[in-house]
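Tokens for GNAT family N-acetyltransferase. Go.
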Amino acid sequence: MPHPLDTLDWPILTERLLLRRAAPGDLDATWAFRQLPETHEWIAAATETYDDYRERFLREDRLADLLIVELDGRVIGDLTLRVQDGWAQEEVADQARSVQGELGWTLDPAYGGKGYATEAVRALIDISFKRLGLRRLHADCFYDNEPSWRLMERVGMRREQHTVKDSLHRTRGWVDGLSYALLAEEWPTLGGHP
């Protein structure tokens, strides 16, 4: 069964950015910003060495979910869309297959504060709802990762959960976590393309 992202025509252009599928050749460009302390602090699977990163990056399941964000031909970030099944009772489980997605993102800090992350994530939301037909998107982060949850709020996602010390951070120990979500039916009222 093809990955849902395989069904789309790439690249996809936004006002200032180009979104495309990740390829093995993106290894060095993504390593350059993912190993920086500002990003390394928050990414879910931080690797300590280039060799470890290469092994993880080149896994087929990792590349399948990964999109690259380019500005004027330069890789400035990446996005993740993991298409998932919704929770369902057994009798209707077939109707809940591949209907929702988990979003993720990492942006080169050198390009922060210019609206690029907002533009890229809004485009991914639009792709998810309008082109892939997903019904719900969600994203999670550590409470201390304020830039990430502020981005979720900027794109119109709703805070659904604030958990207390349920998320284990590699250096900070047990910290609070946040979960945000957005439904397809809410997207047009938030500026999504009808």
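The chain has a mean pLDDT of 94.
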